[in-house]
Design a protein that fits this description.
5 strands; 7 helices; Rossmann fold; two-stranded parallel sheet
Amino acid sequence: MIAVDTNAVVRLVTNDDPVQSPRAAALFAASDVFISKTVVLETEWVLRYAYQLDVAAIAGVLERLLAASSVTVESAPQVRRAVAWFAAGMDFADSLHLASCEERVERFATFDRKLAKRAARTEGVTKVVVV
C-alpha cells in the first residue's frame, strides 16, 4: 500500500495536467492507496477554492474515493459521515471535526454560532454548544 499526497488525488480527479494526471491515474490503478483524513480535508479545500467546484461535485468526488476498492481512507466511517453532512449543508472541515470526535464526546464546544445552527439542522450530528 502507498499513501498519497493531496496533489496526487487532485491530479487524479481533475485530470488537468497532461504529465501528472496520467501518472496519478497509473498509480491508483497499480497500487492499493491510503488517503489520510488530512489529505481528504485538503482535497476538499483545493477543489472548492482553486477549482471552484460546488458542494455536490466535491461530495461526489469524495464519495467515489471512499468507494474505490483499491483505496483505504483513514477513519472511513467518520469521513463518510462528514461527507454526508457536508452534502447536507455543513462546512466540510467542521463536519470532519464533528465526525472524528462523535463517538468519544457528548458535546462539541465552539464560538462559531453558524456551526452550531448548521449542526442543529443536520441529522445525526453531535450536539454543538456555543461557549
